Amino acid sequence: xxxxxxxxxxxxxxxxxxxxxxxxxxxxxxxxxxxxxxxxxxxxxxxxxxxxxxxxxxxxxxxxxxxxxxxxxxxxxxxxxxxxxxxxxxxxxxxxxxxxxxxxxxxxxxxxxxxxxxxxxxxxxxxxxxxxxxxxxxxxxxxxxxxxxxxxxxxxxxxxxxxxxxxxxxxxxxxxxxxxxxxxxxxxxxxxxxxxxxxxxxxxxxxxxxxxxxxxxxxxxxxxxxxxxxxxxxxxxxxxxxxxxxxxxxxxxxxxxxxxxxxxxxxxxxxxxxxx
Amino acid sequence: xxxxxxxxxxxxxxxxxxxxxxxxxxxxxxxxxxxxxxxxxxxxxxxxxxxxxxxxxxxxxxxxxxxxxxxxxxxxxxxxxxxxxxxxxxxxxxxxxxxxxxxxxxxxxxxxxxxxxxxxxxxxxxxxxxxxxxxxxxxxxxxxxxxxxxxxxxxxxxxxxxxxxxxxxxxxxxxxxxxxxxxxxxxxxxxxxxxxxxxxxxxxxxxxxxxxxxxxxxxxxxxxxxxxxxxxxxxxxxxxxxxxxxxxxxxxxxxxxxxxxxxxxxxxxxxxxxxxxxxxxxxxxxxxxx
Lengths: 276, 290
Ligand SMILES: Nc1nc2c(ncn2[C@@H]2O[C@H](COP(=O)(O)OP(=O)(O)OP(=O)(O)O)[C@@H](O)[C@H]2O)c(=O)[nH]1
Ligand SMILES: Nc1nc2c(ncn2[C@@H]2O[C@H](COP(=O)(O)OP(=O)(O)OP(=O)(O)O)[C@@H](O)[C@H]2O)c(=O)[nH]1
Ligand SMILES: [Mg+2]
Ligand SMILES: [Mg+2]
Known about the structure:
The structure holds two protein chains of two kinds. Chain A has helices at 9-24, 26-40, 47-62, 88-100, 118-129, 142-155, 173-189, 208-219, 238-246, 267-273; strands spanning 76-81, 106-109, 132-134, 160-163, 196-202, 224-228, 250-254, 262-264. Chain A is an alpha/beta fold.
């Protein structure tokens, strides 16, 4: 897209394709419509103008930066949720590392008691990042493991408790109920828990991401998103629609498979990356 | 649903007006939106609309008394043809037959390896699972647990590279009476050059008779990028679409076939090891239609 040239309909069409293939979905259509109107009213005239216009549209829809804070009486309890394979367990390891690097004491609850070798996977990570793992037997009630982890975090005066959960699809009503129960049990043992519920979203996910945000939010008090696998070619544009329609901000992005591959979410940087 | 939307579009002309090209265009816009909502790739949706348009003109939909139904039927047929394969999948006897699974991180390869082994065992084959993901924490353990649950042996080793392990799996299989070898590989990004070279090396050393791209059904516009890259490296002969028990419409199935020619052969319908079924293009077309 050559910069500084006069804008034309063909350029707007190509930009619609760029935004659409970034998984912006209906938000892409809406933004391009606004750009077309502004072009007809001569409010934007060049390709520079439209790029600035669209980047600002995306930034405005994403809202202000939103951080994960340690709040209240320790431990701050963070519950990780999301569909199968999205990156929850690896993201927990990265978050744990984020806090242990700050000298904080971290406990992790191995709340996935279902999937083969789930606890073993998390044990390896906990050892690598210097966190304490609380696990149950395979097939144990995940709410019981969550409770044990909360108990350990409270008595050992940990700063942070990170609770992993098994992947689940939003169509599995009994599993969404299980998630609600895990959240309630955490709150019973630690007042105010979970202080944050983070939905881990795979960057390659299309419009189904909006459904995921709605349904998980209906089951547990989701406070934010983490978009994993943004080191791939997928742009993760569905988070714009999620912010607009479900009100959830992105707090972090996952950019690799190592414990250090977690970055705070920057709406400006994200908007810019849509056009690369 | 697309059915209701099209009925609405044409309702105004059902009451005694004649359809115009403009009306047909409105109908096609609805169809395009349905495809995009179903995560079909932007460019692929264009091609499909062109095809539907040509057939709508050819079949004189404009003169039809039930244009909505006729367009839907054309749409359904075009989608089915876009995904159907005229050559059925035959997992034959090659002493042993080698099946390789590859794909992005978290798409469902390890679970699918177990499901495929289970399906073939039920058909009277003697499968061997090969734990060729040597990087993910506890990946080998994960496949071993699945093997134990199924009573299917798992070949696992550390201190070896994935291509070497997969190469030695063949004579191992022969020596131990296995007639099918299933290679589970590590998830990788198609833009990670060293890892794409590694997966190409696995193929070169193990010479699989079938290479399946394991793809998450909820993948959006990026499906064409990853599928195309894996296809260029590995010459895919099929796709396994996982997590289709969710509510995603699964447009990736169409986009992938469109850009690589590789048809979906199996679909994953759950986390249990018996939840793998053969793919039916017409059922998938109805699902994408919504
Ligand atoms: N490239 C890349 N890979 C990632 C990222 N986050 C996670 N992964 C990989 O994605 C795969 C799945 O990650 P997990 O952490 O096991 O995902 P999960 O959500 O816990 O999966 P389930 O518990 O089975 O539902 C692993 O191979 C991870 O290494 C990321 O940010 N970038
Ligand atoms: N609901 C559902 N879950 C599935 C299906 N297939 C796999 N899963 C789940 O998806 C998650 C990821 O599966 P894995 O088999 O670990 O994926 P993978 O591709 O081997 O992951 P990496 O090796 O990290 O790349 C697990 O929680 C599986 O149980 C399916 O068809 N339906
Ligand atoms: Mg996990
Ligand atoms: Mg795996």
